[in-house]
Amino acid sequence: MMAQDELRASVLISTYNWPWALEKVFWGFFAQTRQDFELIIADDGSRPETAELVARMAARSPVPITHVWQPDEGFGKCRILNKALALARGERMVVTDGDCIVRADWIDTHIREARRGHFLAGSYFKQSRDTSEAIDEHSVTSQAVFTPRWLMAHGGKLSRMIKVMGRGRSGWLLDRLSTARPTWNGHSASCLRSEALQANGFNELMGYGGLDVEFGLRLNNMGLTVRRVRFSTVALHLHHERGYATPEMRADSAAVKERSRSERLIRSPLGVNQWLGSDGEPRLGPQDRVTRYGY
């Protein structure tokens, strides 16, 4: 059992009805070089198979796990992330998705590279269907899956291998040489939990498309600047289709994001405060379910 003041980070992992991928994500977190963090599975209404997987993986987890579930009412990622944020006990909030397998130094980098007045923004490395299906537990725990040799042997292209070559000093250098515009990235990003609360968490007016960028915009408006960890926090993104995104959903989200930009909003108009009591303790909905393991 770990005391709350020993938790340096709370990792929020969003998921929806894909336990096959989530199991691989767990393998990556069980192999981390440090264990002073908690995992919070932010479940946007998955069927019981996901809860069964979480319980099974929690029995062998080296870190505490919280599973928060809300009823399936359509795309509700921001809402479930806010509920996960309300439940978080760590000093830093780190976010990723339930289809991203992270390298063993991922958490350590998010903690070690943190600087006052900054949030960290990483990236992800998309994998093909064939490569995704070839990933097994041994390749993750041995860290072979994060090497160019393994990836190219399973369909990866040499031209893209720079994405897994950053480690330590080389990762730091690649991050600073990168010309990609850094933004808050839902696959790999972090800030202080207190900063996320100051911004009132994620904007529940957002549907699919741009919700990560919108949150980062409000952190910028708060006065935080982005610190790039694009190459030093490696996350392999498993292949999947995106049938749930509609043009109307994207257009609505773009309008919300533009308002946050033009009005320089800091606080979400519909955010985490509705899931917190006046004492700062979580106050979730009557149909939400929370299960904690290992605390």
Automatic annotation (TrEMBL):
It comes from the Bacteria. InterPro entries: Glyco_trans_2-like, Glycosyltransf_2, Nucleotide-diphossugar_trans. Residues 10-134 form the Glycosyltransferase 2-like domain. It holds the Pfam family Glycos_transf_2. This is Glycosyltransferase 2-like domain-containing protein. It comes from Thioclava indica.
